[in-house]
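A reminder from the course coordinator: this example appears on the midterm review sheet, so study it carefully.

Given structure:
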């Protein structure tokens, strides 16, 4: 069943500069869908548009079969808790003046009237934060530390914990391992796979790393120069019918 459907989404940054060009695809419930392409091709802009962080110029965005592309802020609010994002740079994503526990509790405070949690329980702030840290395999004592006191891998795990804290249905992962070392990358990818299965999450996994995408995802979208040029099941990655750009990406990973 489709969770997210994008139809002919188009975004301009200037009157004559296209950022996303008539992109259409769908993402199924429980799926990890990969979006791969070189830097600057429009992947992150597409993510911000489908999350309604940025306005679109034309096209449609359906979440659970409801059109959300034109919803005003008040009507969009119930959908915000269903869609979260994990950014590439965890240092920039975390407020340096807030302790980890405060960053983790913030989404709950914002959406508590809309929430009915099934995987986490809220009996106290400390208990809730401990559950979230355990879910991303971090020790409870990190709750009282500031972001600069953590390693890069730990910071990214905190941003993941924050994203899952309100039990969304969709998480957009925008280059979530790009700033990490190889060992941390592997550990985070394994964690994300486990969380998707445990929490019944759906992912849009954005990366320029075709190897990581092919490891994580059931289907793959390939983007080049603001357009989708290829879509296929991951087990069809090496088929002869793949687009020439997809074959180029394969040759270098």
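Designed residues:
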């Amino acid at each position: 069943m489709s969770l997210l459907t994008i139809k002919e989404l188009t975004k301009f940054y200037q009157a004559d500069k296209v950022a996303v060009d008539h992109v259409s695809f769908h993402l199924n419930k429980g799926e990890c869908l990969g979006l791969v392409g070189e830097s600057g091709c429009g992947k992150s802009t597409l993510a911000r548009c489908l999350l309604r962080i940025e306005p679109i110029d034309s096209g449609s965005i359906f979440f659970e079969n409801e059109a959300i592309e034109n919803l005003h802020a008040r009507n969009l609010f119930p959908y915000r808790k269903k869609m979260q994002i994990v950014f590439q740079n965890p240092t920039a994503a975390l407020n340096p003046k807030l302790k980890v526990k405060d960053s983790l509790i913030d989404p709950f405070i914002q959406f508590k009237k809309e929430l009915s949690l099934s995987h986490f329980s809220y009996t106290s702030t400390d208990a809730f934060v401990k559950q979230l840290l355990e879910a991303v395999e971090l020790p409870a004592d990190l709750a009282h530390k500031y972001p600069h006191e953590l390693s890069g891998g730990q910071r990214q795990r905190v941003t993941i914990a924050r994203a899952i804290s309100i039990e969304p249905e969709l998480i957009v992962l925008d280059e979530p391992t790009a700033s990490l070392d190889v060992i941390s990358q592997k550990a985070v990818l394994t964690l994300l796979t486990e969380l998707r299965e445990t929490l019944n999450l759906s992912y849009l996994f954005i990366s320029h790393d075709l190897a990581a995408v092919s490891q994580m995802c059931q289907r793959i979208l390939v983007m080049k120069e603001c357009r989708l040029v290829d879509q296929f099941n991951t087990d069809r990655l090496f088929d002869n019918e793949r687009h020439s750009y997809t074959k180029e990406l394969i040759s270098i990973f």
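Residues 65 and 95 are 34 Å apart (CA to CA). The mean pLDDT is 94.
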